[in-house]
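Appendix B, Record 12. Input sequence as logged:
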Amino acid sequence: MCKWLNALKWVVAGWLALTLSGCGYNTLQSTDEEIKATWAEVLNQYQRRADLVPNLVNVVKGYAAHEQDVFTAVTEARARVGAIQATPELVNDEAAFQKFIAAQGELTGAISRLLLVAENYPQLKADGLFRDLQAQLEGTENRITVARNRYIDAVKTYNVTVRSFPSNLTAMVFGYKTKPSFTVENEKAIAVPPKVDFGAPAPVAPSSGG
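Logged structural output:
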């Protein structure tokens, strides 16, 4: 009797495996893991950028100490990013995800303004350490873009599975829900450096001479 029960158990288990596989369970599992991996890489590259900021600020300060507003903006933007607990679970919370992306966008803008300061200081632009940090930052920004695109692709595949029949039924049973991604607005804000107005030149006073 026990042998028959064990055999029946294996048959049922096999049937369930085939049924779930046909209903997208395996795809949900694999794409969910892909999202976790790609999101971890996004966080890794964002952290790499945040780690470069203090050194970059200090180098610029050495040549442009009076640009205090720019330094403050960068420091505060970095602090706001650091205040958000960037965990793997962040992709399961739409509001928290958008808050994190908005903070990263603010930091992107602040870093862009910091780099624009260098345009007014030829000696700073020629500084070896500044140029090295700038190169590292550019490389990191490229890696962020690649990591973001991989995450976007992974979420797209996963969300299609969650929404499509019959895998949507499997997703409902096992609690799989759609995950947030970068929006077009996010991409525009991140990809386009803000325009900075350093102010119009002061008017030249008319000469008092005849």
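The chain has eight helices and no strands.
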